[in-house]
Amino acid sequence: MLGSDGFCNIYNTTSGISDNVKIISGRVSVHAILASTSGSGSTGDDGKTIALSATNGGNSLIEIALRYPRSGSIGPGADDNFCFLNSFHTGGNGVLFTDGVWIRLNTGPGPDGIRGSIRSLQIFYTGGANT
Amino acid sequence: MRDKLKRLHAKNFFKQWAPTDFNAGNSFSQEEFFTAVPSGTRCVLESFSINSVYSGSSISNSSGINNNRDSTISFRTGSSTGPLIFEVKPQFSSYGIVLFGKNFQSPLFDIPCGGTLFADGLFVGLTARTSTSSGPSEPDADYGFNVNIFYSGGS
To answer: pTM value?
Structure first.
């Protein structure tokens, strides 16, 4: 069910996340995204955003800029204020994707946008199925 | 719609390993599995929180702890080695060290809609790894995780 009364399915990955791939098929409502990141060790670290599109290469319906700890190798820097994970709730009944969900990893908004990596990603949705 | 009168069950899973545990078998990795709901019973995970816990004073490669290794909290059904529903990676925060204490509790993550169904029990796995997979990498002090889960159904 696409409404708020169906249990959530989860797209889950802890391996490398590919760019421009269809990760969920069918008529889908996305309700929340959870992502864990690690930085490169450079001050002002930044990384790729996670963008979800309804078509291959289409415009982003959702795009979130992630918070990166300063360093993945030596522990977070003093300016890091996330204990774990980036979480994003859409509210309402979620965002409708009429025919599947594609993921795209865009360069982050900061000056060091190519640094850092996504360690794990979960997308909570109703309807559809993992590809 | 979520039943406003639905009673939640709460369980806490806490495990800290001693530094010497990590050199056992030269694996530099430790695992602990908990049964939240036994196999054969359905339940719905509604929300959870996790945090890394460390008894030492600093988190760095030299103290054997970092965020770059694959420490995980896994949620499975069937058994402790059954199908993986999802898996998250806990992280340390030095901001937590400064202002909240190094073991600052993570925010509660409220799973949207009616939660996620675990059709054949709910099993939580805690996997801790030290900063490297070779050479001396014992953490300077006890290290582990604290997990809270809130679920309905089950037992």
So the answer is: 0.82
